[in-house]
Amino acid sequence: MISRVLLLVIDSVGIGYLPDAKKYGDYGANTLGNIASHTGGISLPNMRALGLGNIAEVKGVEPISSPSGAFGRANEFSSGKDTTTGHWEMTGLYVEEPFNTFPNGFTDDIMKEFERRIGKNTLGNYAASGTVIIEDLGKEHLETGYPIVYTSADSVFQIAAHEDIISVPELYKMCEIARELMIGENAVARIIARPFDGELGNFNRTVNRKDYSLDPTSETVLDLAKNEGLDVIGIGKIEDIFNGKGITSALHTKSNMSGVDATIETLKKESKGIIFTNLVDFDAKYGHRRNPEGYKRALEDFDKRVPEILSAMKDDDVLIITADHGNDPTFKGTDHTREYVPILVYGKKISSNINLGTRESFADIARTISDLLKIPNTGVGKSFAKLVLKKQRSESNDVNRKNRTNN
Fold first, then answer.
1. Radius of gyration over alpha carbons of the chain, in Å?
2. Which end of the chain has fewer surrounding CB within 10 Å, N or C?
3. Is 163 in contact with 193 (CB distance < 8 Å)?
4. Which of 113, 114, 130, 206 is nearest to 167 (CA)?
């Protein structure tokens, strides 16, 4: 019996463009493959051992004859390529109507009402890279005290402010106001607080980012696990993505490595249910900033810690490593890319060298978690639990049968 599933999202680590990628302007994107090719190859021996190189061609991560885990990739069924869509789908909730985007900035009526409620004018109001816009508008922000509002190709309303000009609690309050406004026909998936510090010409975004998401539109596997009295522990930005729904406890982290630390410590403690971790640095620090070298280093740093994660797992734990979308740093623009995501599955009770092929949706993960934990499912996705679980042979039952026969 499986008591606990660790669902670990290596944020934005796509593994090749989807068949409909052209519709999204993402034909040719391949986050992991292009990073490896662009940088002369990548060394990920521990994920390679689990089967990563058997999913797709990645320079430096060759396929092996007998991976220790199950491996495959998943297609995104939902419309979109953002964080919320990807995470909701992997927990069993499809987003068939894409969230609103505002590529030309937010309408005058939205901005006038937002400024009225916060009691200040704003700067920006256009689609931009977060690191670029604070450099472009930072001087005016410091002089006026006006917050910087911007968006992207994703469904987001982002507010940036220097922590010495607008305090973090005040910025959070502004985000709460924006969340109240951006619902209904104007609904966006997330309002994001983007505090930064430093001096003009040397600004740095701080760890005090906070996301304000919409409530999931129906129950996810997280809710179903919680309803069954199981633990659902969110690590990283998981609690924010689900607006707290289905989460029994949460640990907010400051980096990939602190996320790994928190995950290992949680694995060592007693719990039953789901541990759900998001490692966001790949996306936030390297994908959006189009830094393939940094992305490569971050992947290699994470891979070095995979043995620690495996060592911390109990015999009845299962690890599922996946991603929520792509963000190819060698591709055009600065936004997410619509890609397949990898699936790696490992545990003492998981068979080795199982090829899961191409799954029809991320929701196959949710359906599998339901089957592994023997809880209700959301009704979407196709489970691969029977494919990966070792056949349970009870030697004691065999002995008992022999004893009964002898008697």
1. 22
2. C
3. no
4. 206
Q: What is the pLDDT of residue 403?
A: 44
Q: Tokens 């109001």 identify what position?
A: 125
pLDDT in tens, 22-61: 999 999 999 999 999 999 999 999 999 999 999 999 999 9
**Average per-residue pLDDT for the chain:** 94
Contact 7, 322 (CB under 8 A): yes
Backbone angles phi, psi at 49, to 5 degrees: -60, -30
pLDDT for position 406: 44
Distance (Å) of CA 237 to CA 24, 96, 157, 329, 351: 26, 23, 17, 22, 31
Alpha helix locations (H) across 81-167?
83-90, 108-118, 130-144
- The separation between CA 372 and the C-alpha centre of its own chain, rounded to angstroms, equals 21
Residue-level pLDDT at 392: 64
CA separation (Å) from 231 to 157, 254, 264? Answer: 32, 23, 16
**Cβ–Cβ under 8 Å, residues 248 and 226:** yes
- Cβ-based neighbours of 205, under 8 Å, separated by 6 or more: 130, 131, 134, 160, 194, 195, 196
Bridge partners of residue 148, in order along the sequence: 123, 160
Residues 358, 279: Cα–Cα separation, whole Å: 24
The pLDDT score that the predictor gives to residue 391 is 83
Exposure of 247 in the CB half-sphere (CA atoms within 13 A): 21
Two structure tokens written together for 158:
């982002």
pLDDT at site 116: 98
Tokens matching residue 214:
């919409």
Q: Which domains does the chain have, with CATH numbers?
A: 4-95+217-388 (3.40.720.10), 108-212 (3.30.70.1250)
Contact 70, 350 (CB under 8 A): yes
Residue 326 has pLDDT above 90, yes or no: yes
